[in-house]
Amino acid sequence: MTQTAQERYQAWLGDTSIDSATKDELSALAGNVKEIEDRFYRDLEFGTGGLRGVMGAGTNRMNPYTVGKATQGLANWLNQKSANPSVVIAHDSRNYSPEFAHDSALVLAANGITTYLFPSLRPTPQLSFAVRALGAAGGIVITASHNPPEYNGYKVYGSDGGQLVPADAEQAISAIQQVSGFDQVKRICREEAEGKGLLRWLGEEDDQHYVDTVVSHSLNSELLKSGLGESFSVVFTPLHGAGNMPVRHVLKQAGFSNVHIVAEQEQPDGYFSTVKSPNPEEREAFTLAMKLGEEAQADIIIGTDPDCDRMGAVVRNNEGSYVVLSGNQSGALMVHYLLSTLKERGQLPTNGVVVKTIVTSEMGADIASHYGVDVVNTLTGFKYIGEKMTSYEHTGEKTFLFGYEESYGYLTGTYARDKDAVIASMLIAEAAAYYKSQGKTLYDILQELYAQFGTYLEHLESRTLKGLDGVQQIASIMDDWRNNPPSEVDCVKVEKVLDYAPGLDGLPPENVLKFMLADGSWFCLRPSGTEPKIKVYFAVRGSSQDEAAVAVKRLTQAVMKRVDN
């Protein structure tokens, strides 16, 4: 029989394996029915990026007990799958990330699984790389990406270095659910784990291997090292996260010597005290960087999120003002730079492919098609792009060139299976420097692409709906649009409704609805897999920026009026 939130709450209070400090935290909630409900109405679930939630005591919270249970289940699953498995663990700069990473390593070690642990914060994509480089059975990253400071998370990776896709995730979740009590979670101390060779520390050699691999994908290092790297000014902010050292090392090794770091945001800070949100998708996160950019006369400003898998870029427009590029714009620019360079050198493979998600702009796809490169769509989440990469690696059917998603995630090269803000920082800075050598800015190139392919404009709206009530509200919104689809929106006919819930175009089932309109625009409703949000994506294509801006505003207003009703 399923326990109620109150029953789970009382069970935690009576559990002898739970420490007194946690019980004191829970005892203080006595009588607070709403808070107890939110903390205990469910177990944290695997979504787009594994476990993610607010830190604190409770089954619906990130804490040593939910992390330990997840790790014990993962250990059981890995030991069933293979003999002598090994796991790599990394963490970001968030509060309690080092503790969760260390504790996970000791649980794995207690189950006879060799664990490779980074001694301090590292980028999520470096974890993906390390899993592949070390031939590990899997990986764990303790991170909540760009969520607010009160969040943390637990991402699980497979042997290919990619986040678990649904089939594997279901097996892992089943194994985790079979861990019925915290007394079943095994642990040994660090000294015992090290003594048995079950806990091994990664170091500088591993870091350099990653940096060398990233830099090997530079397209114009000779140009940068011939003097351009000295005159081209870069401002970089890691937003208190894991990108600080790896991005700087890669830029330096690639030939960028005129790099300025935002000092106030250089050091790790789990509270992200200088920003409202450590998210390079938001202009506010670049406030300090743009101030430094003016002082340093920066040609480009780059920011990475706490676990350094997302990259945002800021460039100057024709008036000399800084403009934050959207993820779609940065992606299109990098697709153009990469493919045009490869074609010019006669290195563009005949079976090349660009992989993007179903909510990513079609601009990059049109650019890729112009160069004769196939484009493949996946569901939202870079794990699906990684899954395609691994498939191509096995079959040889296609040569992966670039993968990206609108939410600021990019990858070129096959050394990892997750989005990598380190290589994206290098690639977009290199593109900007290359075009500067031709007397142009990235903004100029973007305008040229608009003139050639049409002015694409996208917009994202999200609604945060927390707790059990929020879950029900999101489900109600999706049911409403699924069961009562509109025939037209803002006087434009809806030509097609794509419902991904039963599985569509060979993709796994996902609770997503995409509406294709007669004028070529579209919008998409998707509950977030990692946050208590419903996201609504909008995309239009016009003949000018003004026309596109009007069109996307009207489409957004018409759709959100019904969503918010």
UniProtKB/TrEMBL annotation:
Keyword Transmembrane: no
Ranges of residues in domain Alpha-D-phosphohexomutase C-terminal: 497-552
Cofactor(s) the record lists: Mg(2+)
Stored InterPro entries: A-D-PHexomutase_a/b/a-I (IPR005844), A-D-PHexomutase_a/b/a-I/II/III (IPR016055), A-D-PHexomutase_a/b/a-II (IPR005845), A-D-PHexomutase_a/b/a-III (IPR005846), A-D-PHexomutase_C (IPR005843), A-D-PHexomutase_C_sf (IPR036900), A-D-PHexomutase_CS (IPR016066), Alpha-D-phosphohexomutase_SF (IPR005841)
Superkingdom of origin: Bacteria
Keywords: Carbohydrate metabolism, Glucose metabolism, Isomerase, Magnesium, Metal-binding, Phosphoprotein
Coiled-coil stretches: none
Any one GO MF annotation of this record: isomerase activity
Chain ranges of the Alpha-D-phosphohexomutase alpha/beta/alpha domain: 45-176, 210-317, 327-453
PROSITE patterns: PGM_PMM (PS00710)
Reaction(s) catalysed (UniProt annotation): alpha-D-glucose 1-phosphate = alpha-D-glucose 6-phosphate
Keyword Magnesium: yes
EC number: 5.4.2.2
Pathway annotation: Lipid metabolism; Glycolipid metabolism; diglucosyl-diacylglycerol biosynthesis
PANTHER family in UniProt: PHOSPHOGLUCOMUTASE 2B-RELATED, PHOSPHOMANNOMUTASE 45A
Family: Belongs to the phosphohexose mutase family.
Protein name listed in UniProt: Phosphoglucomutase
Species of origin: Paenibacillus mendelii
Classification lineage: Bacteria, Bacillati, Bacillota, Bacilli, Bacillales
